[in-house]
Amino acid sequence: MGKLNLNRVSMPRQDPKVRAKNFNEVALGYSMKQAREEASRCIQCMRPPCIEGCPVEIDIPGFIQAICDGDMPEAVRILKDKNSLPGICGRVCPQETQCEIKCTLARKGAPVAIGRLERFVADWERANKEDLTAPVVIPKPTGKKVAVIGSGPAGLTAAAELAKLGHSVTIFEALHVAGGVLTYGIPEFRLPKNIVQAEVDYVVSMGLELKLDSVIGKIATVDELLENGYQAVFLGTGAGLPMFMNIPGENLNGIYSANEFLTRVNLMKAYLFPEYDTPVKRGKKVAVIGGGNVAMDSARCALRIGADEVYMIYRRSEAEMPARREEVENAKKEGIQFKLLTNPKRFLGNDQNWVVAMECYQMELGEPDESGRRRPIIIPGSEFIIEIDVVIVALGTTPNPLIAQTTKGLETTKWGTVVTDGKTGKTVKTAVWAGGDIVTGAATVISAMGAAKQAAAAIDEYLKDLL
Amino acid sequence: MLKLKLDVLGGEKQVYKILLKQNLVPDVHLFKVEAPDVAKKARTGQFIIIRIDERGERIPMTIADWNGQEGSVTIIFMEVGTTTRRLGLLKTGDFVADFVGPLGLPSHIDKFGTVVCVAGGFAVAPMMPIARALKKAGNKVISIMGVRRKNLIFWEDELRSVSDRLIVITDDGSYARKGLVTEPLKEILESEKVSRVVAIGPSVMMKFCAKTTEPFEVKTIVSLNSIMVDGTGMCGCCRVSVGGETKFACVDGPEFDGHQVDWDLLMARQRIYLDEEKESFEHWQAQHRKL
Questions:
Q1: pTM of the entire structure?
Q2: What residue in A sits closest to B277 (Cα-Cα)?
C-alpha cells in the first residue's frame, strides 16, 4: 500500500454573507481536477466497507476508479446501476454516517468524500448527456402492472426498479409536481429543483406513467387499484403530517408548521412572490423550533427571504441535534443564532391574533432517555420571553392517515406508521408493500430508497409467481 | 386527456379543460371543468384545489356540481383576489394547470326531518348539491338565500326546485325581502320544529347563523373556507379550533358543528395574508395593464 493521502479536497461553497441572501446552491461542486484529486485518495480496498454502509449498495470503489481513469461514462453507468437518483443522493445523503463513516480512511480522520464524488458524476452526466452511450435497457414487458403511491425518494426508487424489471408501473402523486419531500421540503439552495426534475425525468423515461394531482384514497382506494388491473401496490407516501406542540397560542397568525413554511417557499416558490402568487410571511425575527435538518432548512429559508434575526430553538444541546453537522455549520456561518437548552412554554399574541413573542423555559440535561440522548429537564422558574413575529415548528412529521383510513386490512402503529415485515416491506395486506417514511416515520432519503429497492425485489418475486 | 408542457419545471403534465364558462352575475363565474377522476368520486360537500398555471396559488373551491358520465366537475367563484381575477379571464376551451380532488369529507346526509339551508352570497352554488341530497333523502328542505342586491342573484329557480320553500333576502331590499338571513332563520326556528341547519357563506354570516340557532339547540353545520395550500393534511395552514381541539379543515372538514367553531380565530386566520393579497393584486394589475 502506498502512502495514504489524508488531504480531503474541500467543497467550494458560496460565501456565507452572499448566500444568506439568495436561493442559489450553497455547495458549488468539484471541478474535474478536484474530483480526480479526491478520487485518487481511494485506496480501493479488497473488501470495501463503504459499500456495506450504502443502503442501495453502490459499487463505490468502482465508480471512484472510473473517475481516476477519466472514464466518466463508466462512472455514470456504475452509479446508475444501483442508484437512479445520484444527483439527489450526492447532495442530501448523510454520507458521514453511512458510506464515509465506513471508509478505511475514516479511521485516520479523512474519509474519501464519496458524496461529493457521487454528486460530481451525476452533475457531469447532466452537463454531458450526449457522451453517454448506454441508457437503461428495459427488458421485454412482463405484462404485470404495479401502482406506486407517492413520487418521493421511495416511490421513485421502487418505480425505477420495477420498470427495469419489465413491469408496467404507474406512479400516483398527490401534488402537482413529482419528487415528494425532495420538491416541497428540501430548499433550492441545498437541492436545486432542476436536478430533482432531471432525475424524475430519467425515472419516467424508463417507460412508466406518472399521474400528478392524483390523491389515492380520494380518486381511488388501494383496494380499487387492486380490483382494477394492478397486481401489486407499493406505498411510498412518506410522513407528511406535521406535529404541533399543543401549547397555548399555537394557532396564532404567523405560526407555521415547517411543512407549510417549506411548501410555500419551495413548492409554491413564495420566495419569488409576487412574481409567483403564493405568499409567505417574511418575519423580521423568526424562531424555528427543532434541531433536525428540516429545522435547519426552515431557518435558512427564513433568513433568505429577509429575516433580520433567526433563532434556532432547541431543547437539548448542540451535541444532540439530529441535523447533519455540515448543515449546522452552514447555518451558523450564515448567521442563524442557536438558542440551545430552550423550550417554548407558550406563544403570546396581540389583539389581531398575531404572534409577538414566545415564553420559553431554560432546560438542562438529565439522564439518557430511550433514544439514548440525555433527557432535557425544565429548570424551575427559568421562564423568559423572546420577541418574535414568525414561528416555524419543525418537530417532526408522522404519516398522513389517508391511505391507512381508506385501505382495508392494513396494520398501523400508534404513530400512524404502516407495519411491514421489516425486510421486504411486505404489509399484512395481500399484494401491498410499503417503504420509506410511511414505515419508519421521518428518516433519510437514502434509507427510504434502500427500503424501496428491497420492496421492489420482493414485488418482482411475487409477480413472477402470479399466473 | 391533454398533456401540455409547462414552462418552469420542464416536464409534461396533464392539464384540465374548461368545458364551459358562464358569467352568472357580476364578478361571479361558473366553470365546468373536465376532470374525470374527480367527477367519478365526487360527493356532496367536498372540495377541489385549483391552480391556474405554474405561477398560481393552490386555492380550494367547494364542488357545486359534477357529472360522472361526462367526467366534469362544476365550480363557482367570485373575483376577489389575484387568483380569482386571473381565473375570471379564462374562457371556454382554456385550461387550468391543476384540479385536484375530491378532497375533504362528504356531507353527512340522512333523513333528519326539517332542514333549513342558509346560503349567503355565491354560496348558493355549494349549497345546491347539499339541498338536493337532503331533499332526496326525504327531508323537508327550507332554503334561505341571501345576497347583497338583486343583480347578484343566480340559481334561484334551481334552489327552489330542490326546496319545499325558498326565502330570498337582499341586504338593500332591491329584490324580495330586505334584511339579513338570520331573521327568517329565527322565525322558522320559532314557528316549527327544525332538526338541522346547514349554513354556507361568508364566515361572519355562518357565525351569526350558529349564534341564532344556539338557543334553539338545533345542530348547525357550517362549511369552513380556511386558507389552504395542499388540501391533503400536509401543512396545517387551515387549522381551526372546534370544540377546543385543533382540526384541519381540509381533512377533518370542511364541514363542522357551527356551535363548536372558534369563529374569531377562524376569521383572524383568514386575514393572515391581507397585506400580501393587496401587494399581489397590485403587482398583477400593473403587469396585466402592460399586456
A1: 0.94
A2: A279
